[in-house]
């Protein structure tokens, strides 16, 4: 009986459709349309010919599809000194490093802040929640000074380090670890597990959905961020793809620039969508088969 | 043999070794810049090619906030934001709960629905959203046609009508900010034992009673977390009017970075107060939680 139920628990989609579902579907589908709007918009926008971009009042859907925005965008990419692949390579490395490191750092910290007893825990928890509210842009200049003092200007790792202590990631991870029952941990302690074993063998597998969420969120932040390149990096060879896309469109002024910007934002957006599609099933599992009840 | 460490000392050691890396990153890249900006907020800061020149002036910048037009505009944007929060937070919370409850039912294609409802998380970035608002994609057409906005403008005083009209015209945007909250609520719902519902059903409770007596109480602790997340998410959204003020004043000639830091801190304090109020309202709920775990 118990095994049978666990099996059902891991299955998100019921196989059959029946009439009791209709009342939910009737509400869910129209709202779903609104949720899809931004996605449809990004795609439509990129394929609009220049005239349509400037229609007034603006129209949501494209009327005559065109690839001219993309053609122009890639025409300019050939003209810059450093090849596009270099920026792309930088961005991929930075993104992988940040996601990997920030998941490790924030799960370790989340476990400590949620389940371990030590001096200063309460204080650190509160300070993290407060720091969440502080507007990032307001500390831009002080942070620049710190990074300059550390000698990290023009260092590749400046792309990575400031992102490691993202308060939002830790906040979410901690909430999920809070849901893990203490009894489970106590049981493993009695069986002789060290805290680190508990972390790797129990906590990490159980909070996979939270980790997937944090991966999606931090991918989005890091991949789209041109700020670190603009602020901390002078050497062009160390800058990222997001920065490159920004300069391409910013250097081409006026009307043509608008079209290219639209194309560039789709190019930048596609990896976000891919990561989302890859990770979403893990996110959506939530706690279904974690055995936590 | 060495004397074994005291239990307490050992706990502290273990706790801080888990938290250590994060704490260092947090201190260096968040706390130090944060306090530097507090110092700047009480200084006259001049940025020039040779570096940064800082003269400590006590509360000069803060006085300026409360006595100049620019400061007044900023304060008004904060009070607008506070009023908007008063409406947006309940809307997002209730909407996420309803959607989470529905997505927790047995519906065909549940995985797909969950994914789409979570999708706006990767799109809800500044530029896309502001474009969509401009294109009118964020309004439900009925709102304008039925004259709701006119009605609001006529009924309320000017300072109250502006934020409320805003909410109606951005109703769909509000829904885009509920992705993570829906996820949090689904996670909480899955912790509720199915047998509780069965037991209630046997005792003669209908779905309505089950919802209020079982579902809602079990979501209470997650409600506070979701509210905190909502406030933070909305408050740090880059198109937020208050943030625009902070940004614009940073390099402005008349005001400068000191003034900008001062308004950033005022904004921070206002947010902390708002968060504190919600915390007090929902604190009881978190304490009750033990009963269900």
CATH-level-2 architecture of the domain at 60-124 and 177-292 in chain B:
Orthogonal Bundle
Percent helix among the residues of chain A? Answer: 55-70%
CATH class type of the domain at 60-124 and 177-292 in chain B? Mainly Alpha
Question: For the CA atoms, what is the radius of gyration of chain B?
Answer: 24 Å
Per CATH, the architecture of chain A is Orthogonal Bundle
General shape of chain B: globular
Task: Give the total of beta strands of chain A.
Answer: 0
Largest interface: A-B, 95 and 92 residues
N-C termini distance of chain B: 43 Å
The helical percent of chain B reads over 70%
Can you describe this structure?
The complex is a heterodimer of chains A (about 290) and B (about 290). Chain A is mainly alpha-helical and about 290 residues long. Chain A has a single domain, classed as MetI-like fold (Orthogonal Bundle), CATH 1.10.3720. Chain A is about 70% helix and about 0% strand. Chain A contains 15 helices and no strands. Chain A has helices at about 1-10, 20-45, 50-55, 70-75, 85-115, 120-130, 140-150, 160-165, 165-180, 180-190, 195-205, 210-225, 225-230, 240-250, 255-285. In chain A, helix 5 (about 85-115) crosses helix 9 (about 165-180) and helix 14 runs antiparallel to helix 15. Mean pLDDT of chain A is about 75; it is low at about 1-10. Chain B is mostly helical and about 290 residues long. Chain B has a domain at about 60-125 and about 175-290: MetI-like fold, CATH 1.10.3720. Chain B has a two-stranded antiparallel ribbon with strand order 1-2. In chain B, a hairpin with a 2-residue loop joins strand 1 and strand 2 (about 50-55). Chain B is globular.
